[in-house]
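Researcher: Please translate sequence to C-alpha cells.
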Amino acid sequence: MKSKKYKKVLIVGCIVIVISLISNIIYFKAQQLDKPIVLEHYIEKGIGKDQDIYLDFYYVTNRSDTSQLIEVYFPKQDLQSYVDYVNTYSTKYYKVNQLRLQILYSDLQNLDENEIILENAVLNYNNGLKQNVDMGEIILTRTKNNSLKSTSSGSSSSGESWEYYKLDKTITINKITSAFYNGTKDFVYMNFIDNYNISSTEIPIEEDEKLIQIGNKTYYPMKELKLPHKATKHIEVISYIRPDDERRFNIYEMRYTLEFTNKDGEEGSENLLNMRYIPCFTEKFINDLGQYLKDDR
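Model: Translation complete:
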C-alpha cells in the first residue's frame, strides 16, 4: 500500500518537474530576440582636417548569441566603416554590444556634401547574417561654428556637459539651435552662469518641479530658458540630457549651437561641446530594453 502511495507521489512530482521545465523553456523562448537589434543613434560630429571619424555604436543580441558584427556599410554614400569591439553588458537573456566604428577621412573626402547624413546601413556578421537597419540619424558636417574663446569644457555619458568661455566683447545670445532641436528640446536642460552667478531665470527652484538640481548647478528646460541673454567677460553654458520615455533607450551625442550678436552688432555662432547620453546598462535596464525592442519591432 505504501509502495503504491510513494509511486503516486513520485509520478506527481515528476509531472510537476516536467511541467515546470516546459514552462521555463516556453518562457525562455518567448524572451528571445529573432535577430540582433540596433539602438537608435542620434549623433552630430564635425569633420576635422585629416581626422578619421569615430562613432560609438550599440546593438542588442540574445546572451547566447556568439556571432560578431564585422562590417557596417552605408549604401547611400558608398561608405565603409571599420568595427572594433569595446565592451559587452549581459543579463540573463540579453547582451548589449558596444562597438566603435571608424570612418576614414580619406573616404569622407570622396563625398562633396558639407553635411553627410547617415541613416540606413547594412550590417554583416561573421555567421553570414546580413541586416538592413535604420540607425537613427548620424550627421557629419564640415561646417565650423566657433567664434568664442573656450577655456575649459567637459562632459559625461550620463548627460551632463559644460563649456566655459572668456569673452573679448559683450555678447547677446539670441537663439539656440540644433539639427535635433525639435526632437529633443523637451528633455534637454540648460543654463547660463555669468561670473559664477546663475542668471538665466528668476523662477524660484522650490516652486518649479521641472527644474533639475545636480550639485550646485541648476538646469532649466529649454522652453524656460530666457532669451535673449546678455553676457560680459565670462559665461559658462551648462547642459543636461534626461530622456524619460522610450527615448531613454536611444544614444545621443548632440551639438547645440549658440547664435549671438556682439556689442558691435556682428553676428556669430558657437558650437557647444557635444551633449552625450548613453544609458546606464544595468540588468533591469537591459531587460526592459530587450522587452521594449522585442515588443516594438
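Researcher: Any highlights?
Model: The two ends are 58 Å apart (CA to CA).
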